[in-house]
From TrEMBL:
Pfam families named in the record: Dodecin
Transmembrane segments: none
Protein name listed in UniProt: Dodecin family protein
PANTHER family referenced in this protein's UniProt entry, alphabetically: CALCIUM DODECIN
InterPro entries noted in UniProt: Dodecin, Dodecin-like, Dodecin-like_sf
Lineage: Bacteria, Pseudomonadati, Bacteroidota, Cytophagia, Cytophagales
């Protein structure tokens, strides 16, 4: 039986929401294997001097746990 775990991660980027999600996956991939999907739970943008200064996302990263025999 396959087991899937979900990890909630906050990530950001000065470029875009897409880049913030990619940063999330890149960082999580350094320590977690078998990532299946990313669900973007929330998005926000920080504003400075009337312009967006950074983009932030809260993501739920799903990954399969290796079976132990």
């Amino acid at each position: 039986m396959a087991i899937v775990k979900v990890l909630e991660v906050i990530a950001s980027s000065p470029k875009s929401f897409d880049d913030a999600v990619q940063n999330c996956v890149t960082e999580v991939s350094k320590t977690i294997r078998n990532i299946d999907s990313v669900y973007v739970k929330d998005m926000k943008a920080h504003v400075k001097d009337g312009k967006i200064s950074s983009y932030g996302v809260v993501c739920k990263v799903s990954f399969r746990v290796d079976e132990v025999n």
